[in-house]
Specification:
The complex is a heterotrimer of chains A (about 300), B (about 180) and C (about 425). Chain B is of the alpha/beta class and about 180 residues long. Chain B contains four helices and eight strands, in the order E-H-E-H-E-E-H-E-E-E-H-E. The relative contact order of chain B is 0.20. The chains are: A alpha/beta (about 300), B alpha/beta (about 180), C alpha/beta (about 425). The interface between A and B is medium-sized, with 25 and 24 residues.
């Protein structure tokens, strides 16, 4: 494993070993001194072309807990406007002896393109509507902590699946670990071709939630209303919102996840978020552990073969 | 071709671990303030067996924890990636306690150095002692063991293999003589 | 050093002449600028044509040479060299330059430039609307008089049905087609690849086939209303084929073309190329089911023309994130290898039928005359080695556009010599100017 660009291209074995590693990294967060010397002398760049405080902080803390040095490069706008190409930016950073690049970009495929031209590890922190692999891993880790294992569980992913990189990474990791995945949301934003991968796709929230062991609630981007894909946030809530009524269709011990940040009162109600079913804060904690595991996996070892 | 010579069998290991348990009790006047911390992987079952021996001797069980030193190695850049195993240790098991680190083989001392660093991230022990089943010499750091099952003078070309039932299905220690590659710990 | 030559003779060559419906082994004589009488004179330089095919007046009716305005991507010289290297003796240049080719003097200017370059016959296509803005018709008659062979707002669709109706109606008096880039912008907006399972799995915004076919249906109805000459550029949708079928049944004057890459490649290439924008074309690469239907449509004559849609871009522009890179790939120099691979290697068409699509048929669509390889005809032809196996290497293209999704692909068949008006323009992959 040289880069982490997409969960789709990881073997089940790679996914399982990253989750084991994450579980062991989580222990470090409970220590009085949450810093291990593992990546001392290594430097990583947080290269964010799209604003995201949460993911950037999570990666930054993960790197720092492993003693790596981190610089944050936050740039907005396309390379066309900037004049310098993205590849030039990356090559320049690489030349400054950086050991790894964490990249977030609004266009699908950019981390893959960077990985193809850079010799150092590239970690995808979310690209367009493509993938968000560390989110997928942390979601899988959280559900497996709540339920013991993912095999045979029914997991519903609710909302704007079509534009969600979180959903794509979730689907790949959940399928790899043997879960039954149901996608549900408005027909305008539901990628029906996912049935080809063995995922159930429906617009019927009740059908999706019934007997569900876990519910991943996706953030509804407000621009979906402007683009005409949903009539209004209110109508969306009525049909696909996670409320105390709709959540009652799931198993009584079903856990609720949300990648954040949440639109309270739109895709999910506050009382559900704050109920004992909600594992959203554990997701945040696991996010740091997963990112430590990924950084250690990609940077914590020589490149040589055994 | 590898040459193999048996150093300890099941009985020899059992006797050595019992002797180490006696020495620990004698030196620390009991087990009241004692934590046994096994270094992953084979230090962990050895620490559990010593703990069981202490229970027999003193009728009181010491606290037992385990430590993976993967994140503290000083040679990460020179070796292929290897995963990190679980660490089960809390500051209550370290702070103001006597910690006995347990490992299978003491060689260059670098593993112990990493374990000392790791321990200090959990708290400040009153004292740290070291128990090993085999001491094979060739230290590269100023580290020595407090309790030794067996001292085995070796050449650097030899490799000491410790096998335990919990992991390998058999209890034995043997030495492999290799001619090409320098052994590593 | 050498005495004055009377001309050239290509001996024992397989002549595939769709203009005369001939496929036979012949000797072809070139005297001056024209096809000459057979002769026993020894003053002819001999070219051994054994194992080669000779095809007259290969015509690519859809290329972008970018001049004036975008010479960093291509200009008339580099484009002409690419055409010669690709074996073409005639091309039609699209008018989406800067300024747009929407007045007769610009049409004339392009033709004059092409004459000076002398590597390929250039038949300009003029804009349908002034500035390609889709609001007012350009001076179509005057451009036709200056040499425009057709009209297109290519690069942009003509979205206003009222203007399209006017353009088609007006075309009946010109004998030149209205060439539509059929795409409903409301349906394609933001899209960068075919909308389907691959786009959904890669998370790239998609363009449904219906963005094309709804406009083809509209245009076919307008062709019926007006009796106009409609030519649908780069067809890539199943629904468009239905519309063309419907037009054919009604006997409308509707023709269409397809690009080699839509016959050869699928949207799976976007995944194989790891998001590298060399696969980004408009209309986008479609799934295999559509590709097969396009091949069938060519075989049964529903699509009479193959044209490259050669759309070169500078490397720097293609070296960008997928969504930001421009649409378009370099197509002239892989054209023959691609269509031979699709139709000849697999035996789907005989050579004579295949070459109709790049000779007679575009001439018919555009109202151009060429008599075929008869004495006195302009000596425009291409020698093709149908057995040559070669690997595509964009760096070696004569075009400034080095981007091709075929990079590294083995192709079978390539042009080995091109002659325009009795002058060699390319021999052994070397362009001679």
């Amino acid at each position: 494993m040289q880069d982490l660009v997409a969960l789709e291209s990881l073997s089940t074995q790679d996914i399982e070993s990253l989750l084991d590693l994450s579980q062991n990294m989580a222990e470090i967060l409970d220590r009085p001194i949450k810093k291990v010397p593992t990546l001392r002398g290594k430097a990583v760049v947080n290269l964010f072309f799209e604003p995201s405080t949460r993911t950037r902080n999570s990666f930054e803390l993960a790197a720092k807990y492993l003693s790596a040095d981190v610089i944050n490069v936050q740039q907005s706008g396309s390379s066309v406007e900037k004049g310098e190409t993205l590849w030039d930016t990356a090559r320049n950073l690489s030349e400054m002896a950086v050991d790894g690049v964490i990249v977030r970009h609004q266009v699908s495929g950019v981390p893959q393109q960077l990985a193809d031209i850079l010799d150092i590890p590239v970690i995808n922190a979310g690209d367009g509507s493509h993938e968000h692999p560390t989110q997928g891993l942390l979601d899988a880790l959280t559900i497996s902590q709540a339920k013991g294992s993912l095999a045979g569980l029914k997991v519903a992913i609710v909302g704007d699946v079509l534009h969600s990189r979180v959903a794509r990474s979730d689907i790949h990791v959940l399928l790899a670990l043997g879960a039954h995945v149901v996608l549900v949301g408005p027909p305008t934003v539901l990628p029906e071709s996912y049935e080809e991968l063995g995922v159930e796709v429906t617009t019927d929230l009740r059908r999706a939630l019934s007997d569900a062991d876990a519910i991943q609630v996706l953030r509804l981007q407000k621009e979906r209303q402007n683009s005409g894909e949903i009539p209004s946030l209110w109508e969306y809530r009525l049909r696909w919102g996670i409320t105390s009524q709709t959540v009652s269709w799931a198993k009584p011990d079903a856990v609720i996840l949300h990648p954040g940040p949440q639109n309270r009162g739109v895709e999910i109600d506050s009382d559900i978020l704050e109920s004992s079913r909600s594992w959203v804060l554990r997701q945040v904690r696991n996010g740091v552990a997963v990112r430590m595991a990924v950084l250690f996996r990609l940077l914590g070892g020589g490149r040589g073969d055994e | 071709m590898k040459q193999v010579a048996l150093l300890m069998d099941e009985d020899a290991i059992r006797r050595a671990l019992m002797r180490i348990a006696h020495e620990i009790v004698e030196r620390n006047q009991g087990v009241a303030n004692l934590s046994l911390v096994g270094i992953r992987r084979r230090g962990v079952p050895l620490s559990e067996r010593i703990a069981a021996n202490l229970m027999v001797i003193e009728n009181e069980a010491p606290v037992v924890g385990s430590l993976d030193i993967g994140l503290y190695r000083d040679d990460l850049a020179n070796r292929p990636f290897s995963p990190v195993k679980q660490t089960s240790l809390g500051s209550r098991m370290v702070d103001r306690r006597i910690v006995v680190l347990v490992d299978d083989v003491l060689f260059t001392g670098r593993t112990v150095r990493a374990a000392l660093d790791a321990l200090s991230d959990f708290g400040r022990p009153t004292a740290i002692q070291l128990a090993v089943l085999i001491d094979r010499g060739h230290r590269e750091l100023p580290i020595r063991a407090d309790y030794v099952g067996k001292n085995v003078p070796t050449s650097r070309l030899e490799r000491i293999r410790v096998e335990v039932k919990e992991i390998d299905g058999i209890d034995r220690v043997y030495v492999e003589k290799t001619e090409e590659v320098e052994a590593t710990e | 050093m050498s005495r004055e030559q009377t001309g050239w003779v290509i001996r024992n060559v397989r002549v595939i002449d769709p203009f005369r419906d001939v496929d036979s082994i012949e000797d072809i004589y070139v005297k001056g600028e024209e096809i000459g009488e057979p002769s026993l004179s020894t003053d002819y330089s001999v070219v051994d044509g054994r194992d080669l095919w000779l095809v007259p007046r290969l015509t690519d009716m859809h290329v972008h040479f970018r001049e004036p305005g975008f010479e960093n991507k291509e200009d008339l010289l580099s484009g002409s060299r690419a055409a010669a290297a690709g074996g073409f003796t005639a091309v039609c240049t699209m008018p989406n330059t800067f300024p747009t080719i929407d007045i007769p003097s610009l049409v004339q200017w392009q033709r004059d430039q092409a004459k000076n370059i002398g590597l390929v016959r250039i038949f300009p296509i003029g804009a349908i609307s002034k500035g390609q803005e889709g609001r007012e018709l350009a001076d179509l008659y005057q451009m036709a008089c200056a040499g425009a062979v057709g009209f297109s707002d290519d690069g942009h669709p003509l979205r206003d049905a009222r203007i399209m109706r006017a353009a088609l109606g007006y075309s009946t008096t010109l004998g030149r087609p209205i060439i539509q880039h059929a795409e409903d912008p409301a349906l394609s907006e933001g899209g960068v690849m075919h909308e389907g399972s691959v786009s959904q799995q890669l998370g790239l915004p998609g363009i449904p086939e219906e963005a094309e076919s709804v406009m083809v249906w509209r245009d076919v109805e307008l062709a019926g209303l007006t009796g106009g000459l409609l030519h649908v550029a780069h067809v890539s949708a199943q629904g468009s084929l239905e519309a063309l079928d419907y037009a054919k049944r009604r006997g409308l004057r509707v023709t269409a073309e397809v690009s080699p890459h839509h016959l050869f490649l699928t949207d799976a290439m976007i995944r194989e190329w790891n998001f590298k924008p060399v696969t980004k074309v408009n209309p986008p690469l479609r799934p295999d089911g559509t590709r097969q239907l396009l091949i069938q449509a060519v075989r049964r004559g529903l699509i009479p023309v193959i044209a490259s849609d050669h759309a070169p871009h500078h490397q720097d522009e293609k070296d960008r994130p997928y969504n930001e890179a421009p649409f378009g790939i370099s197509g002239l120099e892989t054209f023959i290898g691609t269509i031979l691979g699709v139709f000849i290697v697999d035996g789907l068409l005989d050579p004579l039928s295949l070459f109709r699509l790049v000779t007679v048929e575009p001439h018919k669509v555009l109202g151009l005359e060429y008599p075929g390889l008869t004495v006195g005809a302009p000596a425009d032809f291409t020698l093709i080695d149908p057995q040559a196996k070669w690997v595509v290497d964009g760096k070696k293209f004569y075009s400034r556009g080095k981007n091709t999704p075929l990079e590294g692909t083995w192709l079978q068949g390539r042009p080995v010599a091109t002659m325009v008006g009795g002058q060699w323009t390319m021999r052994d992959q070397e362009v001679l100017r």
